Amino acid sequence: MADAIAEYEMRLSKKFPVAWATPAADTKERESEAILRLVKESDKVVLLDERGKDIDTPQFSNMLGRHREEGTKRLVFIIGGAFGVADTVRECADMTIKLSSLVFPHMLVRLILIEQLYRASSILEGGKYHHA
Known about the structure:
Elements: H1 2-13, H2 28-38, E1 44-54, H3 57-69, E2 75-79, H4 87-92, E3 95-98, H5 106-124
Parallel strand pairs: 1-2, 1-3
Helix pairs in contact: 1-5, 3-5
């Protein structure tokens, strides 16, 4: 998975910067506090959660395009830990979406997210990556 993530990071780096932060903590509350310390007031925050809004790839692409058009400086995607995130993180999110109703390991979510970011950016550019 690390190689696949690195490949998409390289592809996306030509379009926009991608950075990962993985605050480690022993409880959901401490991890959530660490996440919130990384979020800036001007950030637009998207929480990934299996209870979030179900969107498809074109909707994801539209959301990404809307943020680009609005001049969003930093779009932050939060992937919660094994026990999710505290309510304080939910409250700071501008949007909560789900990648699936299933629960995935953290690294797999990273891979799915970065692939979808690449796919969405390709759609916005009129590319042929998306075949639907």
